[in-house]
Design goal:
This protein is α/β, with parallel strands linked by helices. The chain has helices spanning 19-22, 30-35, 52-66, 77-80, 89-104, 120-124, 133-143, 145-148, 161-170, 173-177, 186-203, 227-243, 286-298, 315-334, 377-388, and strands at 12-16, 70-74, 108-114, 154-158, 210-212, 214-216, 219-222, 251-254, 258-262, 265-266, 303-307, 339-345, 364-366, 373-375. The chain has a single domain, classed as TIM Barrel. The longest helix is centred in the last third of the chain and has 20 residues, at 315-334. Keywords: Glycosidase, Hydrolase. It comes from Sphaerisporangium rhizosphaerae.
Length: 394
């Protein structure tokens, strides 16, 4: 009989970050350019972010001090290849030092090759639907092999391609004003899948880490009689990306909330339900439904929960969210889902894309003027679970 409170001893307990959202000064990035464009849809520019490019040692040390054993971070493509075909040895050495610094602190690094942002030249050459996109991403993957080929357990090729495709719609003011797109189009979906597979080929050309990608998965819950509608809604938005993970070493599941689906699509958040700083329903149990769904769609590809968290200024709600989410995750594991790790989003309060710095997801607060880090009480709640590998009592 499974132990209903204990996680496997080799389980990865971590937190996640992303280069553009924490590093600061990412001048060669497409997002930096769009943040500063006239009429920008961004609430504010990323600026210095959390100064994470220089303060990574402190951040990894704080993560380890909390009691976590894994750190997911990304390589910023525009730093490594600021101009097409011109690679920065200094940037490659920097990210290799982060890998080595994790090991010095007893932390397992999990590395994402591309997290939403791309170099300016890549966007100008057609973004992911450009004719050479997959080849260019494969070339970049080969260039960063010195970072990830030794001492990195898992490499995520592309972060949330389904979210990136939807976000692309919102980056132009005219498109954003027109409302949400129906779903990622077939051309961009295929472009992402092709680029991912080319990168996996490169990674598997040398002995090294497990390879996969991460997918934004909403826990779609159909109301009675809307099961077919829910399946039709989910397929182009997430399931086609999960299906592409069949045959990979793992798939990253990134989940924050549920969505009720009626016969004609998503329903509003239930009346009276608690909501987060960005209007999503506060629903920690979504991780259990998302993991079960991913396990079914992928046919059993091993899973890392690479992002899960809540945007709230009330840290007691974050602590509650973490505990309930981990209970739901463990129940899914006891029911047969092959989950190898859990990464909270995010390690730091950081830049949250179009919304700027207002939403706070972090286990650690960051002073916007001094960059001083302050560990929140919720981090210690999470750390106690991670250290013991057990859920608290009811």
């Amino acid at each position: 009989m499974p132990n209903l409170s204990a996680f496997p001893p080799e389980f990865l307990w971590g937190a996640s970050s992303a280069g553009h959202q924490i590093e600061g000064g990412n001048l060669a990035s497409d997002f930096w350019e769009m943040e500063h464009a006239p009429g920008s849809v961004f609430a504010e520019p990323s600026g210095d972010a959390c100064d994470g490019y220089h303060r990574w040692r402190e951040d990894v040390g704080l993560l380890a001090g909390i009691g976590l054993n894994a750190y997911r971070f990304s390589i910023e493509w525009s730093r490594v290849e600021p101009e097409e075909g011109r690679f920065s040895r200094a940037a490659i050495d920097h990210y290799r030092r982060v890998v080595e610094g994790c090991h010095e602190r007893g932390v397992t690094p999990v590395v994402t090759l591309q997290h939403i942002t791309v170099p300016r030249w890549f966007r100008r050459s057609g973004w992911w639907t450009g004719p050479e996109a997959a080849a260019r991403f494969a070339r970049f993957t080969e260039a960063v092999l010195p970072i990830v080929s030794e001492g990195v357990g898992h490499v995520c090729t592309i972060n949330e391609p389904n979210f990136a495709a939807m976000l692309e719609h919102d980056l132009a003011p005219a498109r954003a004003a027109a409302g949400a797109p129906a779903a990622p189009g077939p051309a961009v979906t295929e472009a992402f899948i092709t680029a991912h597979r080319r990168a996996v080929e490169v990674l598997r050309s040398v002995p090294g880490p497990a390879c996969g990608w991460t997918v934004c998965v909403v826990d779609h819950q159909p109301v009675e009689g809307a099961e077919e509608a829910a399946a039709a809604w989910a397929r182009p938005r997430q399931d086609v990306f999960l299906e592409a993970a069949k045959g990979d070493d793992f798939v990253g599941v990134q989940v924050y909330t549920r969505e009720l689906i009626g016969p004609h699509g998503p329903l509003p958040v239930p009346e009276g339900a608690e909501t987060t700083q960005i209007g999503w329903e506060y629903y920690p149990e979504a991780v259990g439904g998302a993991v079960r769904h991913a396990a079914t769609v992928t046919g059993g590809t091993p899973i890392l929960v690479t992002e899960n968290g809540v945007a709230t200024a009330d840290d007691t709600r974050r602590a509650e969210y973490l505990t309930r989410a981990l209970r739901a995750l463990k129940a899914a594991m006891d029911d047969g889902a092959d989950v190898r790790g859990y990464f909270h989003w995010s390690l730091l309060d950081n830049f949250e894309w179009l919304l700027g710095y207002r939403p706070t997801f972090g286990l650690i607060a960051v002073d916007r003027a001094t960059f001083a880090r302050t560990v929140k009480p919720s981090a210690h709640v999470y750390g106690a679970i991670a250290r013991s590998g057990r859920l608290p009592g009811p």
